[in-house]
Amino acid sequence: MNKPNTKLAPSLESTARYIATLQLPSGALPWFAGGITDPWDHVEALMGLTVAGRYAAVLRGFEWLANTQRANGSWFATYQNESVADDSRAETNFVAYPATGLWHYYLATRDTASLLRFWPMLERAIEFVLTQQASSGEIYWAVDTRTGTSKDALVTGCSAIYKSLACACQIAATLQQPRADWQAGRQRLGDALRNKPQRFDRTWESKARYSMDWFYPVLTGVLKGEAATRRLRSRWDTFVEPGLGCRCVHEQPWVTVAETCELIMACVVAGETAKAAQLYENIQRFQLADGSWWTGYVFPDDAYWPDEKPSWTAGAVLLAADALFDLSPASGLFKEVEPE
Prior knowledge:
Number of helices: 13
Number of strands: 10
Distance between the termini: 34 Å
Low-confidence stretches: none
Largest sheet: 3 strands, antiparallel
Helix content: 40-55%
Strand order of the largest sheet: 3-4-5
CATH architecture: Alpha/alpha barrel
CATH class: Mainly Alpha
């Protein structure tokens, strides 16, 4: 089942085509040809294909997730071809993210049959994630296969989980299988993110130097309205390099396309559409002739680095364009913030 998106500009259609060429027969979407696959970035690339109307490829991608899911509901950190590449841990953010991708696919297609098909996978994944929730609300970042739960939490990861839980609850309601425990877990997580900063980065150096820690609470609906606007304005000059895009970390002269695209979506969510449009215009220089996009750009050296063109970066471009220009029926995924 495909429904080509006729609203896509040729440059975006070539981006979708580039992602599709990387998909393995198993349905996995590696970072690039010969590269690893991780569950989060796999879903991000699938969402790009959803924007483009390449639904058959998206369903193959969800089938790969269903086939590789572990008995406890999780996925390992990375895979290579048909084998596990890193079995050291399962990251809760990775495990939750298929819920966001599946709800995004449903918004585009209204394909209830596929929601039902992948509901058992989703249910196991969300149950795994919520078993890692602390009594204070945060969700621990990973489960180590040797030592068990790693009892610290990430602002970016928990913000993404907050959105994934919203999507999981939407899927449950659509299938008339509401899960009040999932909603309660999301409420506790939101409270921790907004009101308990001391529960994050307790055992390692603060991640506040990363731009994602700054804008992810806005992108994922943790912060809304005036609070979201204040958040973006508070560190705009720290992270945004005029004419180029968003830095990955504030002290490095390196802008990255994926972070810029996610910031574009956060700006749209916060009503800062002029800033979003300017950022989108700025990144056009980073696309290659085959439709792919560079990971990032070190501006003092005028160098694209690393020499990689990830599928997930391409997916993020398509998602940003959709949020900004309403190219698909799923364009409201982040703009429509679900109440707690």
